[in-house]
Amino acid sequence: MINLKNLLLISATAMVLSPATGWAQMTPAGVWKTIDDETGQEKSLVRIIDNEGIVSGRVEKSLVNDPKSIKVCNLCTDDRKDKMIVGMEIIRGVSRSRETDGLWDGGEILDPQKGKLYRVRLTPIEGGRKLEVRGYIGLPLVGRTQTWLRAE
Fold first, then answer.
1. Are 101 and 86 a contacting pair, CB within 8 Å?
2. Could you tell me the pTM of the whole model?
3. Cα separation, 95 vs 101, whole angstroms
4. Number of structural domains, the chain?
5. Element (H, E) at 88
6. CA distance 132 to 103
7. How far, in Å, CA of 93 to CA of 107, rounded?
8. Taking phi first (over 0 means left), then psi (-120 to 50 degrees means alpha), and beta for anything else, what does residue 59 get?
9. Which DSSP helix (H) or strand (E) runs through 23?
């Protein structure tokens, strides 16, 4: 039988562990279904990994069935030029923000369709089920935001 002392111990343990569970979900690490902010169409699956506090993201699968879709980053100007988009690292050097809780920034994101690099902010929302991805040049106020959906 559970007495009051054990019930309080169980409750306190649950309260201590609950924030840790929520914290684990509030990371950009995982597999995300990218959604084009202009068309609303699903574009790809991107796997974001955390390597000792620095996150990067790689296109794992294309969800576009159009045979005319761009498969190689012809417009890229760095080491990714003329490389296949599936398998390509499109997010580099992002870390947890020191100023804003829940925000990941400091890195860059590549739009492989246009070959353009942008600074990036990643913000897990809705308990980590969605990820706001903001690409911008200069100040974060000038840019675009996509909302990606957690696939894994």
1. no
2. 0.81
3. 12
4. 1
5. none
6. 10
7. 4
8. beta
9. helix 4-25
Range of the domain at 59: 27-150
pLDDT tens digits along 74-100: 999 999 999 999 999 999 999 999 888
Q: What DSSP string describes 6-20? A: HHHHHHHHHHHHHHH
31 CB contacts (<8 Å, ≥6 apart)?
45, 46, 47, 48, 60, 150, 151, 152
What confidence tens digit (pLDDT) does each residue in 25-69 have? 489 999 999 998 888 899 999 999 999 999 999 999 999 988 888
Tokens of 84: 């296949």
Output the domain CATH number for residue 118: 2.40.128.520
Residue closest to 57 by CA, chosen among 44, 45, 46, 73: 46
Comparing CA positions, the residue from 59, 57, 56 lying closest to residue 69 is 59
Tokens of 94: 């992002």
Token digits of residue 150: 């957690």
Residue 142's nearest CA partner among 125, 122, 118 is 118
- Give domain status of residue 4, yes or no: no
